Amino acid sequence: MAGRIIDGKQIAQVLRDSIQEEVMFLKDKGITPGLAVVLVGDNQASETYVRMKQKACENVGMHSILIHYPATVSETELLAKLHELNQDTSIHGILVQLPLPDNISEIKVIETIVPEKDVDGFHPINIGRMMTGQDAFLPCTPYGIIKMLEHENIDLEGKHVVVIGRSNIVGKPVGQLLLNKNATVTYCHSRTKDLASVTRSADILVAAVGKAKFITEEYIKPGAVVIDVGMNRDEQDKLCGDVDFEGVRNMTKAITPVPGGVGPMTITMLLFNTVKSAANVLDSSYSL
Ligand code: GUN
């Protein structure tokens, strides 16, 4: 039987509706949640993501500004702008789109943003707070995955989750969040030996590999839940995930499509984090 499709677009819309309500509530109190997006250079994919993020802000009634620098901007100038945004009371979230040009230190940039406005959840303080299970800004893609699994009532307790990928943005934090939910977590990566033998023991498989349709039938345990974080182009230049969706769907209990799966959740959690930051101006109890 074909696995259930986890409709990220629909789940994202449900969350965006409550975010929009919270934005209205905050505006009523004189606070318009504001996001500053900083883009360096002219990477096409980054420009598209940034446009989508700003449009999403607009749709829920939030304020957003774009600061777009040429690739030649100096690290000093960029850091000075971040200091300025840290002080700007109309801005509750600061996001510097990654990757950055080689002459700019990503870690310096991330550490310059005050943790209270780090709506990407990349600052070491937020990472540390996440690891120790404290309240923190959680990175948007991992947080979106957790929200999807919760929405679908997928039980995590004691389940074997296999994460393929160990990036700081997705792989590492998603494993940590699932561990916080009492899953048993295994990380796999490019040096893992006999990957399929590990992934075939997964009740829940999270694929953040970065290779189009890499995950085929032999990687899946029958009845598994499959979460596809991939954003690739296939031979016809069509957007596709890391999972061969058509090939594996019949074996799964539930599966996320690409597009329309994890992607819409990522932007939603950015909105959520920005509203949470704005709500912190009043008190610190905002939750969905
Ligand atoms: N580049 C790819 N994904 C992300 C993200 O979630 N945040 C930022 N700032 N840059 C990215």
Automatic annotation (TrEMBL):
SUPFAM superfamilies, sorted: Aminoacid dehydrogenase-like, N-terminal domain, NAD(P)-binding Rossmann-fold domains
Positions with a binding annotation for NADP(+): 165-167
Reaction catalysed by this enzyme: (6R)-5,10-methenyltetrahydrofolate + H2O = (6R)-10-formyltetrahydrofolate + H(+); (6R)-5,10-methylene-5,6,7,8-tetrahydrofolate + NADP(+) = (6R)-5,10-methenyltetrahydrofolate + NADPH
Gene3D superfamilies reported in the protein's UniProt record: Leucine Dehydrogenase, chain A, domain 1, NAD(P)-binding Rossmann-like Domain
GO biological process entries: L-histidine biosynthetic process; methionine biosynthetic process; purine nucleotide biosynthetic process; tetrahydrofolate interconversion
Gene Ontology molecular-function annotations: methenyltetrahydrofolate cyclohydrolase activity; methylenetetrahydrofolate dehydrogenase (NADP+) activity
Keywords assigned: Amino-acid biosynthesis, Histidine biosynthesis, Hydrolase, Methionine biosynthesis, Multifunctional enzyme, NADP, One-carbon metabolism, Oxidoreductase, Purine biosynthesis
Pathway: One-carbon metabolism; tetrahydrofolate interconversion
Listed GO CC annotations: cytosol
Tetrahydrofolate dehydrogenase/cyclohydrolase NAD(P)-binding domain mapped to chain residues: 139-279
The enzyme's E.C. designation: 1.5.1.5, 3.5.4.9
Pfam family, one: THF_DHG_CYH_C
InterPro entries, sorted: Aminoacid_DH-like_N_sf, NAD(P)-bd_dom_sf, THF_DH/CycHdrlase, THF_DH/CycHdrlase_cat_dom, THF_DH/CycHdrlase_CS, THF_DH/CycHdrlase_NAD-bd_dom
CDD domains per UniProt: NAD_bind_m-THF_DH_Cyclohyd
Tetrahydrofolate dehydrogenase/cyclohydrolase catalytic domain boundaries: 6-120
Role according to the record: Catalyzes the oxidation of 5,10-methylenetetrahydrofolate to 5,10-methenyltetrahydrofolate and then the hydrolysis of 5,10-methenyltetrahydrofolate to 10-formyltetrahydrofolate.
HAMAP family found in the cross-reference section: THF_DHG_CYH (MF_01576)
Protein family membership: Belongs to the tetrahydrofolate dehydrogenase/cyclohydrolase family.
Subunit-structure text: Homodimer.
Protein name: Bifunctional protein FolD
